[in-house]
DNA sequence: GTCTATAGCTGGATAGAC
DNA sequence: GTCTATCCAGCTATAGAC
């Protein structure tokens, strides 16, 4: 399994560069240089740059949800878990200096010409919605809620998406804090 | 003013390509070819590709708000105007085959290395918030609203942002329709 | 499987004729 | 102010030695 050491290093370096500089602005040359491996080695593990991209998205999705699980683990109450999802995004945006959502960034960059990447971005969003829905199902409603549970799911999802985009644009966590407050009211 | 004819054609072609293919994926060669002008002419009007980018963002912002004004003109009631803002985005996304928000796309692509572009993207968002706020100020509240006006502004803004991103990712107007429904409930 | 060398092309930008 | 010719650095990808 020694070969996967190199593979991992390539993927790690590429992931960082794709996220920080953008996929199209990152060249193979820079990747092999910073990963300190040879050109041929990269193409041995990833037949094309596009394959590297799909591996990046899939890996990022897994890391994202693993990080979320870890972040929410100490919290018991499902409502508090839902609210902490905003905290998770704040935490991540702070760490990445408000680099924005990995998946929306890729979606904005390759929209159209890369169907694989496109489907993978959708997959992350579907998984996020499923995650929210599962938590919502555990919430015991305190009041007959002016807004139905299905609509509440949409609202929370859209608030998260919008707040992350806005936080990245302003390089400020305030939109995510605002969204959290709104969610708190809506969850009753 | 004959020179501005060429300038306009360059900007129009570049705008279309930047939006459809992305800024980094669009080369000068393609722009001059499709605009049917010479290399030197482009650099005469725009000293660098980056200048072309800032012109693109500014022009797009103006067109965006002019289009919005036009779209909302026949509507009287401020609440209906607010809801129609979602219809405007649906209309635009349908026309662009769900290409997404011009400004978020650029924000995702140049984040960091182009301060000018970054500030211009923020400018569009500020202007959008001001637009929503002005309409909200004209709405006569039917009920004591569980959610304050300032928070309502944030909510509407974040819903618009999130729904546009999601609509683009799914290539479907449903998220924008969902957001509109939510807004309708929140506006009472 | 990892390496170096290089092919083949396209990027943004400039110089100088007209 | 519009054009053509051209520079050089960068790109993705392949070939072939070890």
Brief rundown of the structure:
2 copies of one chain form a homodimer. With 188 residues, the first copy, chain A, is an all-alpha fold.
What is the straight-line distance between the termini of chain A? Answer: 52 Å
Percent in strands of chain A = under 5%
The average pLDDT value of chain A, as a whole number, equals: 94
Count of domains of chain A:
2
Shape of chain A: elongated
Radius of gyration of chain A: 19 Å
Q: Structural class from helices and strands of chain A?
A: mainly alpha
Give the oligomeric state of the chains in this entry, treating copies of one chain as homo and distinct chains as hetero. Answer: homodimer
The residue ranges of chain A in which pLDDT falls below 50 over 5 or more consecutive positions are none
Strand segment tally of chain A: 0
Query: What is the H/E order of chain A?
Result: HHHHHHHHH
Q: Helix count of chain A, per DSSP? A: 9
Largest sheet report of chain A: none
Helix content of chain A: over 70%
Biggest interface, residues from each chain: A-B, 43 and 43 residues
